[in-house]
Structure formats: structure tokens, C-alpha cells
Amino acid sequence: MSFETSERAWLRETAGVLSQILGLCGRLGVRQSRIFLTRFACKPVSFFKWFRFLAGFRRRHGLGCPHDDLLRKKPYKFFALGLPGHRGFDLLAGHFNLAAAGLPREMLEAAWRGRTMAIGQVTGRRDAYTLTMRLSVHSGASHEGAFSIGLTRQSDRLDLVRLSFILYPLGASPLGASPLGADPLGIGRYTVAIGGLQGSREPAAKRAVIDATRDLCGLRPKDAALLVMEGIAIGGGADHVLGVCDARHTINFRALDKRAGKRADMDQYWSDRGGRQGGEFGFAMPVRNRDMAAPVSRREVYKFEFLNIGKSLFASPLGLNEVPLDRPIERTFVR
């Protein structure tokens, strides 16, 4: 009897996956459908697990159809080079389960449908800077994470930086103990793993980054984005943030002649910010601003605001938010 029940459940899930594939191909057109089906034929188990997860996630949370680009995501080529087995799928599924537990309903729905979410704004001395979050695939970083945040200068809508990440459950690492030597944290806690950190490719980007750094009293746009990640990690009860090293970066999936000039020196960036080699992806950075005191300088005010945007983005596990928010944070909205 139990065998028949499980067989029926498997057949129902298989039919559901096939229905999703047929619907997706019907929307994609001939050329894109051929590309997708070729990938599916090469990695059928990986795609089947991903489609089955999406169908179950949709049922559990009462969501509509996911964005087609979310359906086409490749779990077997995700986040870091050299992941064992189906680890890419586990990271993706873990991220969305944590996001569903923490994001407000309207933001979860927006992410599921592929819409851009404004998550905060910081006003410098002369200009304002808006933070947005979207699916990484819509930031040109499909392999580097599940979500991406972007920092945009309001006066000319110039994108200054893009950071791609996943929520990473603590205590679930194949490596076991904390990469910084601390005792493993409890179930339900999480940190952030950063898969990509890119500046703008616009011709005027270099000048814009210099101007933005001056406007924020010496706070660089990349460091502002990293502060948001630290805030998320603090909300998850973590004392560190993980980062992908150069050798594990997903750019290495590409041919050698297509890698040049595509990313910054990640190893040097992590090392300059107190990172040490370790963790599942190559580097672990301590959360340096966990106990930040009330700001006394304008630069510290800006750092405090970016950190608080991260702390307020995802709900904290009960009892973990040890540093209270000292100022109201503007409520997120979807556009």
C-alpha cells in the first residue's frame, strides 16, 4: 500500500515537472527551447530536482508561477567551481527556504516573479543612493548567487556596484565547524555567502565611484554593499560572512579567453577586509561592525545606515538580534 502511494506521488511529481517543461518551452520560442532542452538532456536529474523543488515551494507558500528565468537556472553550475554532487541544488533550495522564512510576503512574491525590490536609500552630502534587490539572473550574474543587490546613484541612475549572494544556513556546511574557529551555531541561524562583487561597466563608472566615495565621506560603494551583507549576517546570528575565492569563482566555468577582465581580484579584496582562507568557498570574513556604537562622524552615520538596511531585510531568528535598531528604517516597496 505504501509502495503504491509513493509510486503515485512520484508519477504525480513527474507529470508536474513535464507540465512545467512544456509550458516553459511554449513561452520561450524555438531557439531558446532547443538550448534549454539540450541542457536538460545533459543534466536531467539536476533539473528534475530543481523543478520539483519549485513546484513544492510554490504550493507551500501559495505563490503564482515563478519567473521563467528562475525555472531555467542551472543548479549544477551554481555559485562555486568544484562543488560536490548536487551541492549547487542544496545551496539554492536552502537559500529560498531561508528567504521564505524571513522576507515579507510581498517581497517574496516579487522575487518569485522576477521583479526589482527597493530595499533602502542613503542620502550623502550631495546625492542619494538607492539599494535594490532582484534575482541574480537579472543582474547578469546567474551563476554567482540567487539574489543580487545593486547600489545606484539617484541623480543619473548610474549603477555603482552589484553584489550577488545566497543565504547560507549555519551548522549545515560539509566542512563542519565555523571557518573562524568559533563553536557551530544553532539550527535556524544563517550567514551570507557572496559569489560575486562587480563594479559598473559604464564608461563613466570610475569617476562616478570616486565621486560617490567622496560624497559618502570615504565609504566606497563596494564597502557599502558589504555592510548590507554584514547586516544580514548579524540578523541571522552569524559572526562571519563567506566569500568565493578566485580559484572557485564561477567565471572559471568559461573558456580561458573569455575570463580576462570579467571580475576584480576577489582574494585581495577579502584579505584587505580581514578575511581568512577557510569556509566552503575559500574565504571567511569576520563581521567587523556587529557592535557598532552610536555614530559620531558623518562617515559612521552612512556605515550605520547601510548596516541597518541589511539587518532589517530578513527577519531574525527569535532572540538573535542583539543590537537593536536605533533609528526607523524606511519600509521596502516593490516596483
Q: Your description of this structure?
A:
The protein has 335 residues and is α+β, with helices and mostly antiparallel strands. The radius of gyration is 20 Å and the shape is globular. A hairpin with a 4-residue loop joins strand 1 (117-123) and strand 2 (128-135). The chain has a nine-stranded mixed β-sheet. It has two domains: 2-77, no CATH class; 87-334, no CATH class. The protein is built from ten helices and nine strands. Helix 1 (2-28) runs antiparallel to helix 2. This is DUF535 family protein.
Number of structural domains:
2
Strand percentage lies at: 15-25%
How many E-type strands? 9
* Mean pLDDT across every amino acid position: 79
Q: Which residues form runs of ≥5 with pLDDT under 50?
A: 181-186, 316-335
Decide which structural class fits the backbone: alpha+beta
* Global morphology: globular
Q: Nearest-angstrom radius of gyration?
A: 20 Å
Please give the alpha-carbon distance between the first and last residues: 50 Å
How do the strands of the widest beta sheet line up side by side? 7-8-6-5-4-3-2-1-9
Number of helices: 10
Q: How many strands, which pairing sense, and closed or not: the largest β-sheet? A: 9 strands, mixed
Portion of residues in helices?
40-55%
Instruction: Output the helix-strand order.
Output: HHHHHHEEEEEHHEHEEHE
